[in-house]
Amino acid sequence: MVRGVVSLPHGTGKVTRVLVLCTPDAEAAAKEAGADYVGLDEYIEKIKGGWTDVDVIITMPSIMGKIGALGRILGPRGLMPNPKSGTVTMDVAKAVKEVKQGKIDFKVDKSGIVHTSIGKVSFSADQIRDNAKEFISTLIKLKPSAAKGTYIKSIYLSSTMSAGIKIDPKSVEEI
C-alpha cells in the first residue's frame, strides 16, 4: 500500500475550495492564507445536513473529536482530515497555502495503479514535465523496502478524453 502527498511545482491548474475547521483564534490566519470557508460549529452542522461542496477540509488536532462524528459523511467522499496527508495540523495557514499551491494526495488502488492529475492540457510541455518528474520521484521515494523486482512497470500520460501515451519507465528512473 503506497500513499502520500506531493506538492507540484506548477500546481494542478484547478481551483481548490478549502474548508478550515478551527478555533476562533486561528480563523484570521486561515482566511489570510486563502481559505474559502472558515468556522467550526456552523460548518459541522451544515455537513451533518449533507453539505460537502469543498475539495479539502483542514482542521486542528484538538477539534478532531467533533469531526469524528462526521466520518460516515466525509469518509466515502475522501474529505476526512488525516494527519498523514497534512490536513490535521496546528499550523492551518501553512496547510491552506500548500493546498492552494497544488499539493495533491495519491494512493494505490486494488490493482496496483496510481491515478492522479498532474496538470491541464493548457500547461506548457515544461510545466507538465516538471510536475511529472516531481510526482514520479516522490513515488519512487515511497517504494516499500519489501517491494522486489520492477517497481514501476508502466507509465501512461493522457488527458481526460484521449488515448494514453506510453512513457518508458526506464527514462524516468534517472530522475
Which class best fits the helix and strand makeup?
A: alpha/beta
Shape: elongated
Rg (CA only): 18 Å
Beta-strand residue percentage = 15-25%
Overall mean confidence score, pLDDT: 88
Please, what is the oligomeric state? Answer: single chain
Going across the biggest sheet, name each strand in turn.
3-2-4
User: Terminal Cα separation, in Å?
Assistant: 23 Å
Order of helices and strands: EEHEHEHHHEHEEH
Secondary-structure blueprint of this entry?
Elements (H helix, E strand, L loop, with lengths): L2 E5 L10 E4 L5 H7 L3 E3 L1 H8 L7 E4 L4 H4 L3 H4 L17 H10 L1 E5 L17 H17 L13 E3 L7 E3 L1 H4 L3
Parallel strand pairs: 2-3, 2-4
Antiparallel strand pairs: 1-5, 6-7
What does this structure look like?
This protein has 175 residues and is α/β, with parallel strands linked by helices. Helix content is 31%, strand content 15%. The protein is built from 7 helices and 7 strands. The strands form 3 sheets. It has a 3-stranded parallel beta sheet, sandwiched between helices. Strands 1-5 form a two-stranded antiparallel ribbon. A two-stranded antiparallel ribbon has the order 6-7.
Summarize the structure.
The protein has seven helices and seven strands, in the order E-E-H-E-H-E-H-H-H-E-H-E-E-H.
List the keywords.
175 residues, alpha/beta, 3-stranded parallel beta sheet, two-stranded antiparallel ribbon, 7 helices, 7 strands, 31% helix, elongated
